[in-house]
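Input chain follows. Return structure tokens only.
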Amino acid sequence: MHDEQLYGRLVAAAKDAIISIDEQQNIVLFNPAAETVFRCTASDVIGKPLDRFVPAALREAHRRHIENYGAHGDATHAMGGARLLSGVRADGEVFPIEASICRVDSPTGKLFTVILRDITVREQLARELQASLQQQKQAEAALRESRDSLRELSSALQAIREAEKTRIARELHDELGQMLTALKLNASAIADDLQPNQSELARRTQDMKLLIDTTVRSVRRIAADLRPVMLDNLGLAPTLEWLTQDFEKRSGISVELTMPDEDLGASGDAATAVFRIVLEALTNVARHAKASRVQVAILRKAGNVSVSVADNGKGFNEDSARTRSFGVLGMRERAYVLGGAFAIDSAPGKGTRVTATIPAFGTVAP
């Protein structure tokens, strides 16, 4: 195959537009890619000036550029430099291009070949990418705003629930407790007035007093579960001591509580969050862990309260549904709304450890 034939095939197969012009800047070669780019056929343009594909305002400058390049330029030259070049399609559409030019000197004169690429698609893709990135940023900002709003809502709902639990606990402890105490006093007074021959009535009165005592204990337990009065009156440390002792007595699971001797410094929302996290973690141990021992550690670190509840139970796979239960979600959210952190570490047969870090200073709980 002759060199000219090989060159012709390469030019025809090229994906970039290739246009050759003579010294008068008339077109002598127009490959198929150029036909596609400029939307016209080679037969329409061969022998005609290249100017038709240059915007009118740039034609004179473009012509001088080629003339100067023919007289002084290197054999190969990138056209435009940092400037944006433009072409004109046969239908008049102006579009951006990248172009380079090379010169061949022959006995018949100089031949200039321009290789150009339509960058409309690339610019369109760049614009679409920029728009997509902008949309992604907006979506991320909206997601963050939504999460912040949901967190604020969750915090507000927790505060409302805590206030309602406090109100109900106080009413149970004060009003219902006082009524039950009055009933017991009345039952005792009736028992004191009974005659020796009223043994059946005495037995029923004694049963009544026992039932009242049981009811009083239940009311106190329910009120304490809602919100221990001592959390507001005595603080976090005594409340946690009571909670772990009560859990050990009810469940039969041994509890080891570790706390610093000095004041934890947690109050308000922070104290409530620590109490609720420990309570929920212990509840989960009783329900699911089949453990015989629990270690509860409360530490003060750099202005934060660190909470750790670890059991020697059966553990679970961290991908299981238990990590997405309402109890776990509630513990995590209590930590997050105060700017803290929460984590669960567990594996089958290895027990479970719940850890949380809560900033120690919170608002005063209702």
